[in-house]
């Protein structure tokens, strides 16, 4: 039996940052092993507001580097994943007594001009008395600004990065917890524990990337067993989902009296997503939940704007996540920097560990490039940066080609309902065809679990996207959970268990 391999890079964490780094690294020729203790994107990366955005608000904190980088990424990411990322227009009503119009205009001028915008349309001013976006709002708002940003299916962005990394040779291990790591000679010995069997195994690697998000300090303190670490500030953010409040493809960005902003965004065709909050968090990130106070805050903030108030009983779903922000000792949670910081330890004979603190979904690809520069500093140079021009799985069609893809899929699989064909292209892009194979009718897709979820899709997600539980399928790979009854969830769970999941 040969000795077990020594991987070049061991990545802790299957969120957007871990998966983005694994993909970039393996594509440059490094051997990569990634371990995720739960499901892909089960941490913060499925709990975002889901914007690919520069962060208009961050301009107020002079975060020009971050805003510029993030703005530039909008069109790069859209080009590489036009199925799960698309442009969205945002309506920002001007509200008397809050930020002055000249300040908003200045911010949006910068937004339009510092971020290499080519395809996204520019900002314009709206007369809310005549523009349809004024209709669902109280008549207090006569003027608004409309600007561009992007929307992303956050959890799928993670799964697609993992898929691509695996296709290029990376080992992606989910439900596998990193429980210990120690240096041995010039490399690391990492101990992994299987979540189901509790069996442990050891993997050797030349370098560790710590991309554990809210757990990044925990890895340093308890897994590498080093010393106290206080690099991140955990800031909870929650969202509520209600039945659709308006019939427009545009989203709203509302200013609150406390100086914060919230978004109201068209969501999954039939819903409106409202969020988010910002409050310091000190519990276990795995158990984070929206509080009553947060739900009330979001309802009240949205009700300042919508004619029909948003009430607690309107909430059909909510989710909550923890931002692992780099601790820059800002006084308020909302003021803490959203930029990322990478810090390396080791080298000179001691195997290195590089920790990623902070960051945004929007900047994950750039964070990975910066991480690769650091990795190459230790392990030597391999390939050049490559991810700016490489479509993610299923994203190999033109930026404006989504509707054409839906049409072609519907023509080739005429038995699909229009809404199903559209949903499949939104989630899988050109790979919808792989999922459907040579099916000639709905019966060929196997068991119908409800809400347009067929066995063929579940099997695809189990085979190719590491889905193991009904929750993985219903809340992360798809959002069919919004339409499923408890009985349907149980049936899906039992089917997946029967498949050995
Ligand atoms: C409310 C909210 C709204 C947001 N909105 C936006 C937005 O609109 N746009 C945007 O760009 N960004 C947004 N963000 C920021 C973005 O979501 C995060 O920056 C990003 O998801 C962080 O990704 P990550 O990979 O670092 O962390 P995570 O996604 O948390 O991944 C870390 C992973 O490490 C795993 N892990 C931890 N310990 C171990 C271990 N011992 N062994 C194995 N695995 C382990 C965890 O299970 C987890 O899956 C938002 C964040 C929040 C909370």
TrEMBL record:
<dbReference type="Pfam" id="PF01266">
    <property type="entry name" value="DAO"/>
</dbReference>
<protein>
    <recommendedName>
        <fullName>Glycerol-3-phosphate dehydrogenase</fullName>
        <ecNumber>1.1.5.3</ecNumber>
    </recommendedName>
</protein>
<comment type="similarity">
    <text>Belongs to the FAD-dependent glycerol-3-phosphate dehydrogenase family.</text>
</comment>
<feature type="domain" description="FAD dependent oxidoreductase">
    <location>
        <begin position="8"/>
        <end position="364"/>
    </location>
</feature>
<keyword id="KW-0274">FAD</keyword>
<dbReference type="InterPro" id="IPR006076">
    <property type="entry name" value="FAD-dep_OxRdtase"/>
</dbReference>
<keyword id="KW-0285">Flavoprotein</keyword>
<dbReference type="Pfam" id="PF16901">
    <property type="entry name" value="DAO_C"/>
</dbReference>
<dbReference type="InterPro" id="IPR000447">
    <property type="entry name" value="G3P_DH_FAD-dep"/>
</dbReference>
<feature type="domain" description="Alpha-glycerophosphate oxidase C-terminal">
    <location>
        <begin position="387"/>
        <end position="493"/>
    </location>
</feature>
<dbReference type="InterPro" id="IPR036188">
    <property type="entry name" value="FAD/NAD-bd_sf"/>
</dbReference>
<keyword id="KW-0560">Oxidoreductase</keyword>
<dbReference type="GO" id="GO:0004368">
    <property type="term" value="F:glycerol-3-phosphate dehydrogenase (quinone) activity"/>
</dbReference>
<dbReference type="InterPro" id="IPR031656">
    <property type="entry name" value="DAO_C"/>
</dbReference>
<dbReference type="InterPro" id="IPR038299">
    <property type="entry name" value="DAO_C_sf"/>
</dbReference>
């Amino acid at each position: 039996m040969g000795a077990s391999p020594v991987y070049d890079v061991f990545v802790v964490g299957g969120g957007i940052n871990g998966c983005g780094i694994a993909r970039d690294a393996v594509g440059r020729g490094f051997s990569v092993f990634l371990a995720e203790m739960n499901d892909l994107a089960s941490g913060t990366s499925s709990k975002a507001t889901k914007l690919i955005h520069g962060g208009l608000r961050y301009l107020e904190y002079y975060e020009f580097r971050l805003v510029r980088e993030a703005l530039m990424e909008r069109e790069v990411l859209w080009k590489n994943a036009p199925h799960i990322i698309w442009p969205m227009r945002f309506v920002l009503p001007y509200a008397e007594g809050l930020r002055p119009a000249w300040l908003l205009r200045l911010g949006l001028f910068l937004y339009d001009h510092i971020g290499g915008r080519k395809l996204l349309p520019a900002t314009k001013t709206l007369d809310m008395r005549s523009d349809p976006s004024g209709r669902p709002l109280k008549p207090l708002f006569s003027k608004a600004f409309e600007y561009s940003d992007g929307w992303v299916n956050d959890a799928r962005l993670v799964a697609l990065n993992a898929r691509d990394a695996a296709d290029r040779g990376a080992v992606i291990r989910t439900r596998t917890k990193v429980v210990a790591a120690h240096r041995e000679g010039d490399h690391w010995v990492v101990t992994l524990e299987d979540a189901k069997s509790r069996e442990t195994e050891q993997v050797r690697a030349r370098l560790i990337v710590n991309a554990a998000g809210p757990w990044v300090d925990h890895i340093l303190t308890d897994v590498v067993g080093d010393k106290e670490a206080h690099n991140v500030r955990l800031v909870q953010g929650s969202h509520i989902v209600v039945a659709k409040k308006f019939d427009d493809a545009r989203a709203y960005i509302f200013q609150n009296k406390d100086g914060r902003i919230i978004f109201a965004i068209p969501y999954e065709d039939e819903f409106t997503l409202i969020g988010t909050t910002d409050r310091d968090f000190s519990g276990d990130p795995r158990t984070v939940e929206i509080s009553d106070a947060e739900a009330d805050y979001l309802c009240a903030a949205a009700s300042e704007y919508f004619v029909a108030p948003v009430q607690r009983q309107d909430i059909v779903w909510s989710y909550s996540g923890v931002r692992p922000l780099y601790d820059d000792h800002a006084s308020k949670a909302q003021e803490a920097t959203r930029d990322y910081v990478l810090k390396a330890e080791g080298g000179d004979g001691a195997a290195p560990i590089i920790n990623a603190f902070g960051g945004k979904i929007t900047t994950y690809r750039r964070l990975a490039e910066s991480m690769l520069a650091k990795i190459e500093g230790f392990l030597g140079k391999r390939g050049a940066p490559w991810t700016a021009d490489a479509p993610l799985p299923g994203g190999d069609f033109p930026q404006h080609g989504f509707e054409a893809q839906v049409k072609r899929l519907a023509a080739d699989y005429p038995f699909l309902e229009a809404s199903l064909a559209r949903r499949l292209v939104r989630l899988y892009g050109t790979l919808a065809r792989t999922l459907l194979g040579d099916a000639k009718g709905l019966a060929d897709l196997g068991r119908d679990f409800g809400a347009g979820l067929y066995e063929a899709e579940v099997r695809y997600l189990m085979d190719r996207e590491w889905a193991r539980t009904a929750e993985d399928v219903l809340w992360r790979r798809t959002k069919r959970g919004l339409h499923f009854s408890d009985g349907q969830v149980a049936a899906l769970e039992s089917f997946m268990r029967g498949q050995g999941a």
